[in-house]
Amino acid sequence: MIKSQDKPRVYDILAKAFTQEGVRTCFALLGDANMNWATRLSAQGCRMLYVRHEHCALAAAMAYARKSGDVGVATVTCGPGVTQLITALPAAVRARLPLVVFAGEAPLKSGWYNQELDQAPLITTTGAAYHPLHMPERMPVAVRDAFLQARRERRPVVLGVPFDLQNRPWDGPADLPRPSRELLPRPSPMPPHPDDVSSAARLLAGAERVVVLAGLGAVEAGAGAACRALAARTGGLLSTTLPARGLFHDDPFCIGISGSYTPEVGLEYLAQADLVVAVGCSLAYHAGGGGQLWPKAKMLHIDIDPVAVSQGQEVARHHLRADARLGVEALTSALPPRGRGWRTDVMAARIRDSQPDSQVFEIEPGLLDPRRVVEALEAALPQDWEMVNSGGHCSWFFAQMPSRPQEKFLTIREFGAIGNGVSFAMGVAAARPDRPIVLFDGDGSLMMHVQELETIRRHRLNILIVVMNDGAYGSELHKLRSEGLAEDGSVFGYCNFAAIAHGFGLAGKTVKDLGELPKLVKEFAASGGAAVWDFQVSDKVVSPTIRRAHPHRS
Ligand SMILES: Cc1ncc(C[n+]2csc(CCOP(=O)(O)OP(=O)(O)O)c2C)c(N)n1
Ligand SMILES: [Mg+2]
Predict the structure, then answer these.
(1) Ligand 2: distance of its center to the CA of 332 in Å?
(2) What are 447-474's pLDDT values in tens digits?
(3) Beta strands in 253-338 (DSSP E)
(4) Does residue 392 have its Cβ closer than 6 Å to ligand 1?
């Protein structure tokens, strides 16, 4: 009979259950209710990234999940550790990211505990799942089931484990359950129904100006080549949603991102389209799903779960239910060749040569035009570096980097929160440790979680942070200006990010001369470390999206 003090503890077994699930990276911030578990997980060989704010642990795990294709794992303590998750969770739910969070819960044995909180309703209101684990013997199975649920439902699952239960001697079975990946159903891609293919083909036969619009579902289904072939067969154009940007980067008839970030020439052609074939996308409001950008077009939605209404707007009247690749391939096979259709050489030349935005602005001396900054970065940054995007007004400019393939970008924007850039970059750095990561962020967004510069240094992450510094919450500033309101609360002045970077032990540079970029890129590549480059830009340059949505009231 093993004496109770010699038995493993519940936290040992819980850590083993996570290791058994294949967890090799975990984003963590410790407290009483998760430190024993996290220490054991680390001892079992899991790489721990210890961040400085719980939000950043979860946001980094989100980017890790998207980049690795695996479940992202984070851990936080009970009470105040859990409340810090509440901005990241809805973002993860909307981006359909599989995550498992090991959270502590207050001890069950005491009548009072200062960090006690009813955590379940807080978590479930975000759309994430919450499971309190209160029966030690069942915990390994509950961990396995959490991974199954995260993978199958593609959403975050938070496990709450009271820390007095974690400390108990283990009295359960010696063997752990089989891991979730051995149990998951692996359904084959869903072929379309022939009747649906025939009616979709009839619709295409009657269309003259087709745009094939692909989303992340098309990326995941490997439908890129099939979409190109469909566009070629119909003589149509190609476009993507923001998260799928780059899927057609080298196709001369790709008009860029559809939605808030569409370049000038893309807007012009979308307005002429008479049929949009949306492939593997959720038809989100900001992607133009409500038809704002293509008022003359009908829409055919090809998806495993096609919809008529999305985010409050009627979107598609025509539907083809299928795996994106199989659906598009079947449709292309059902169409007769029809020559060049809408395509012309002039069109290809305009797509290639026109500026994303040709508006002229008066720029103050000593400041940069954000559009020129992005052009220079696009030319100077190597093609195989990972690109991470954040939010804010500046994201319009950063979206205009058309020369790179889809797998080099990471964009998670579904909850519209700023402040995630550094965390996303850390998550990508953990998933792709073999190459530099470039984060494109705004000054306000970076400032919101600037403490993570210390995490980046301590874990020696190879991240270049590009700050589009307009000394303001640009989004707010431009909207306030358009309404003729006071700018207070949106303008902060140009803080010195190079000095801030130095303070955290990172390299930092205020870039004033864009001609220096090739040299700076070379130096950064040779350093293998992290740096912050501050580009002080004029707040006079207003993005086309803001100009459209918030014209100046005269
Ligand atoms: C968490 C959160 N708080 C506030 C906002 C509102 N908001 C949207 S953009 C923005 C300004 C971001 O500033 P910055 O990162 O400097 O980018 P810029 O707009 O100046 O280019 C703010 C405050 C938000 N989206 N998310
Ligand atoms: Mg700003």
Answers:
(1) 45
(2) 999 999 999 999 999 999 999 999 999 9
(3) 254-257, 275-279, 298-303, 309-310, 313-314, 318-321
(4) yes
